[in-house]
Amino acid sequence: MVIMSVARSVLLFLLAAVAEIGGAWLIWQGVREQRGWLWIGAGVVALGAYGFVATLQPDAHFGRILAAYGGVFVAGSLAWGMALDGFRPDRYDLAGALVCLVGVGVIMYAPRA
């Protein structure tokens, strides 16, 4: 039961990351790369989806969910940049992302009384 809850939570964090990072990237492309309003509109929709997906986390504490998601966002943003923009993180980027993901684990999955 605990493993399924953690697996669901991790999947929701990944979906939220795709929605938020993807939405921000679409808006970036629409504005900075002059791809137009369709890209910007799709980004706004994706950002709205992110807000919804975050509410599906099994933990009921908004602050905890958003704090933990911050770590997922850091690592996910680097991965997105690598996959779609040719960004190559250095060892400090990777170390920072790892620290953030460890923080996610502690915040979300540490045993609590």
Automatic annotation (TrEMBL):
SUPFAM superfamilies: Multidrug resistance efflux transporter EmrE (SSF103481). It is a multi-pass membrane protein. Its main location: membrane. GO terms for cellular component: plasma membrane. It is found in: Cell membrane. The keyword Metal-binding does not apply. This is Uncharacterized protein. InterPro entries: EmrE-like, UPF0060. Keywords: Cell membrane, Membrane, Transmembrane, Transmembrane helix. The chain crosses the membrane at residues 36-53, 65-82, 94-111. Belongs to the UPF0060 family.
